[in-house]
Specification:
about 725 residues, single chain, Aldehyde Oxidoreductase, domain 4, alpha+beta, 7-stranded mixed sheet, 6-stranded mixed sheet, 28 strands, 3 domains, iron ion binding, binds dioxothiomolybdenum(VI) ion
């Protein structure tokens, strides 16, 4: 049984609101959690095969130029060395981007950034390979490199597709009762997933099998096949568990291609694990940004104009530009509008999607500007936002599919105790600390991506879910089991979930906050199809059918699955985005509140507490959803206060290329964080009526902190991260 469903119309209702099994939304523990804490969940670098050998990548030591020669003599003479792969033309210059189905990037012709992988040394052990990697002699002809973003900003080229304009913003600024026109800057950042990029490659005949730490397996398979000149059905990628991605594993990275080449040359399994430094130097980063935000408002606080223009950087010929104005375009009204990005060409590693590309840094600027406007107009920041919620998309004139932003602002304000805040900056002191409170809205676009799953109802009253969807630590295993359990009237323990293998039906993958809703819908649809068959078998209409405790019921009549299912029942379902994508603005919303202390003498900033109220349609599991939002808010602390990738503008190196020196918030930096979800259903999003939350928690969180810092000490810093040197 195969079905395809296209999301062309809002759906009237979801079966999940009628099945009454009390499984969906429940905060149950991760079903794969025990495997993980016992070390029995195997990650890509943990697979071992007979005869397996190890490869270590060698990166360029210049940021721009060409290779004039590679001398392997010294490296090959070292003990244990088996091969040196130097046909780097086949290597990727860059990891691919998610969702791309064409070859992700050109092979290597020139060196485009420091650390770009140009060779792989393979040896019997990792240590021997690492030793020999250091003995590979590479001669370069350096070229002039473009390394200084700020110095080169005047050379930024506009990205045409991002330019949008309506009305006369300059006029609106001149006529405004109050206006803000300022520049915010955010630094280069690294996704910093816990698990480094790793691939274990082996060939079975002419088929390549890669155990790879990736987020979106079906497009990753396409990219790997393209890079190696193979048909996609000759490539299989397996990623049962992935230790975080945050964008850096959307596309394949160089170690997979190199491992595949070496495995073919040696006819042995080859494992290549990037070092942390290689992850930083050679995968992806978030671009630094320079953002000009303009707000024009009347004395009543209503916006008459809004502008958000951004300069980012990327490698030569790369088109991705951090879409910092993504949510600015629909969050607030104002007739005159201008948005646009431009790109500086830079010899730094690819800049690409990372943790809420767009909103994560764009809302630092927008929500900072809104805070400044609130102060200029002497209007409460919560009230200012509520006054500016547009009834429809301000440029496209589309309705919102659902938007409980005002409710989130009200609920969050009340839960946080916002009414007690002193709006005058530098007015609350406790001992050596200035105390301040700030808030910001949260918004993150919602998407549906084509996704397939197969569900098999066995003769043993168990169900099996198979899809190449990944679980990157987010809870996919658990929510898919909950959806099937709810739909089939089985306990969660009776659902087996098999993910992360391109041998299964192709899923959306994990990215862009679309994974749960897209993959979840495919499971829902397959289960719905199975329900129809069960209904037929007991002579019920689908509406009359009740499934619970492994029984199919119609009124008082009941039959166990064991009688109804004598051969396994299999349904494969695919969901595709349709017209609701074009006909509605879809986003999840929320409100962030933060309290900080700023040390009177040192300028040290401590976050004291955070609160987030969110509305994202149906919440599929209140525990995993809450964990995701907390994780996002923790990264909000990083964005506001600690994270900054430092590029050496003379050598092109990354100065802080590891987790010791690239400062993510750690336990000592993270206070109590409260998360509340408001009840909501989104009928235009998908048949689950759910929206994505993966990246909602980070969107706006850092702005609430920065606004709290201003409220604490009266210093407005627009250059992120807010390190203490900027406060004294
Ligand atoms: Mo996300 S930055 O689409 O993994």
């Amino acid at each position: 049984m195969n079905i395809t469903f296209k999301m062309d119309e809002p759906v009237g209702s979801s079966l999940l609101d009628h099945t009454r099994q009390n499984v969906i939304s429940r905060p149950i523990d991760r079903i794969e959690g025990p495997l993980k804490v016992a070390g029995r969940a195997r990650y890509s670098a943990e697979f071992k095969f007979p005869g397996m050998v190890h490869g270590v990548l060698v990166g360029s030591t210049i940021p721009a130029g060409t290779i004039t020669g590679i001398n392997e003599t010294r490296a090959r003479a070292l003990p244990g060395v088996l091969a040196v792969v130097t046909d780097y033309e086949t290597f990727l210059r860059n990891p691919g981007q998610g969702l791309e189905t064409e070859a992700p990037a050109q092979g290597v012709r020139e060196i485009a950034y420091f650390g770009q992988p140009v060779a792989l040394v393979v040896a019997e052990t990792f240590e021997a390979a690492r030793n020999a990697a250091g003995a590979l002699d590479i001669a370069y002809a350096p070229a002039e490199a473009r390394l200084d973003f700020r110095a080169l900003q005047s050379e930024a080229r506009p990205k045409e597709s991002s330019q949008k304009s309506q009305g006369d913003l300059d006029r609106a600024m001149m006529d405004a009762a109050a206006s803000i026109d300022a520049v915010w800057t955010t630094p280069s950042q690294n996704s910093a997933a816990m698990e480094p990029h790793a691939s274990t490659a082996l060939w079975e005949g002419d088929t390549l099998i890669v155990y790879g730490a990736y987020q979106m397996l079906s497009s990753d398979r396409q990219q790997l096949a393209d890079a190696l000149g193979l048909a996609p059905d000759k490539v299989r990628i397996i990623a049962h568990y992935v230790g975080g991605g945050f964008g850096a594993k959307l596309g394949i990275s160089q170690e997979s291609v190199a491992a595949a080449l070496a495995a073919r040359a040696l006819n042995r399994p080859v494992q290549v694990v990037m070092t942390r430094q290689q992850v930083f130097e050679a995968t992806v980063r978030r671009s630094e940004t320079i953002q000009r935000v303009r707000l024009a408002a009347g004395a009543d606080g209503r916006l008459t104009g809004i502008g958000h223009e951004t300069i980012t950087a990327n490698l030569p010929d790369e088109d991705f530009s951090e879409p910092a104005s993504a949510s600015t375009q629909f969050l607030y009204g104002g007739e005159a509008r201008r948005f646009g990005n431009s790109i500086v060409t830079l010899n730094q590693v690819l800049s690409a999607s990372m943790r809420a590309p767009g909103e994560a840094v764009g809302m630092l600027a927008l929500e900072g500007a809104m805070d400044e406007l609130a102060e200029a107009l002497d209007i409460d920041p919560v009230e200012l936002r509520k006054r500016n919620l547009p009834p429809r998309h301000p440029m496209d004139d589309l309705p919102f599919s659902s938007r409980s932003l005002a409710e989130c602002l009200d609920h969050g304000a009340s839960a946080f105790g916002w009414a007690d805040r002193n709006p005058r900056p530098a007015n609350r002191r406790e001992g050596e600390w200035w105390i301040g409170q700030g808030m910001a809205a949260a918004a993150r676009s919602n998407m549906l991506i084509t996704s397939s799953a197969r569900v098999t109802l066995g003769t043993d009253s168990r169900a099996l879910i198979e899809t190449d969807m990944t679980d990157i630590g987010t809870g996919t295993y658990t929510i898919l089991a909950q959806i099937a359990a709810e739909m089939l009237g089985l306990p969660v323990e009776a659902i087996d979930v098999h993910l992360g293998d391109t041998a299964f039906p192709a899923a959306a993958g994990s990215g862009g906050s679309f994974g749960a809703a897209s993959a979840g819908t495919s499971v829902y649809l397959a289960c719905k199809r199975l329900r129809e068959t069960l209904a037929e078998r007991i002579g019920a209409t689908p509406e009359e059918l009740v499934l619970s405790e492994g029984m199919a019921r119609r009124g008082n009549a009941a039959k166990p699955f064991s009688e109804l299912v004598t051969e396994p029942l299999v349904a494969t379902a695919t969901v595709e985005p349709g017209k609701t994508e074009e006909n509605f603005v879809q986003a999840a919303f929320g409100a962030h509140f933060a309290e900080v202390g700023v040390h009177v003498h040192t300028g040290e900033i401590r976050v004291r507490r955070m609160h987030g109220t969110f509305a994202a349609g149906r919440i599929l599991n209140e525990k995993t959803a809450r964990s995701q939002c907390i994780g996002g808010m923790v990264f909000g602390i990083g964005t506001a206060l600690t994270e900054e990738l430092v590029h050496d503008t003379r050598l092109g190196t990354i100065v802080n290329h590891d987790l010791a020196e690239y400062h993510l918030p750690v336990h000592a930096d993270v206070p109590r964080i409260d998360v509340v979800f408001l009840e909501e259903r989104d009928h235009a999003a998908n048949p689950l009526l759910a929206k994505g939350i993966g990246e909602l928690g980070i969107s706006g969180a850092g702005a609430a902190i920065a606004n709290a810092v201003y409220n604490a000490c009266g210093m407005r810093v627009r250059d992120f991260p807010l390190t203490l040197d900027k406060l004294i």
